[in-house]
Amino acid sequence: GQSLEQPSEVTAVEGAIVQINCTYQTSGFYGLSWYQQHDGGAPTFLSYNALDGLEETGRFSSFLSRSDSYGYLLLQELQMKDSASYFCAVGTGGYQKVTFGTGTKLQVIP
Amino acid sequence: KAGVTQTPRYLIKTRGQQVTLSCSPISGHRSVSWYQQTPGQGLQFLFEYFSETQRNKGNFPGRFSGRQFSNSRSEMNVSTLELGDSALYLCASSLSGLAGVNIKETQYFGPGTRLLVL
User: Fold this and answer.
1) Tens-place pLDDT, residues A94-109
2) Which residue of A has its CA nearest to B46?
3) Which end of chain B is more exposed for a tag (fewer CB within 10 A), N or C?
4) What is the pLDDT of residue B49?
């Protein structure tokens, strides 16, 4: 079966850096995506890694190690508006065959 | 450009009833996917449609079905509702259904329909 593991909750201080890890076991792998979802809102795409290494987009960075079946999302200079749930998702092949993790609820505190 | 829209936003039904949810993708997007989101199971893939054809399906019972129209709008139907079907149902659109497997494509989610089954 397919499984993605993420911590269920993380708390961090405003202005700090936080890392959200994701390990996966899937029967196919095309890439690792990250999504942000605020309470009551729709998931929004943050980043995508198909190859090993770090991708940077502003305050957010995402890392992938395919040999370790592991990735992480790094959020820098945390702001209160970053409080949300973050999902990793693996593209396992086929059309729109994407498996999501159960999500990490990030709480940013003053 | 307008985003993905879903109707209705909230719905209350009773066990045994059926329900139809609607999704209008971003203009120009031909792929529509449906997901079920629950606190316990997270986001689970239901099915994907492209040019009126179902191309992929997740592990859900046959009570869950869908279709896509020539204008790319999509509907999903759940028959014989069960209490466990209470969830947020999200649809997502993309150009060609390669989001997650192709770096050049992104899927955009709608706000969802929150279904409560009593």
Assistant:
1) 665 788 998 999 999 9
2) A97
3) N
4) 94
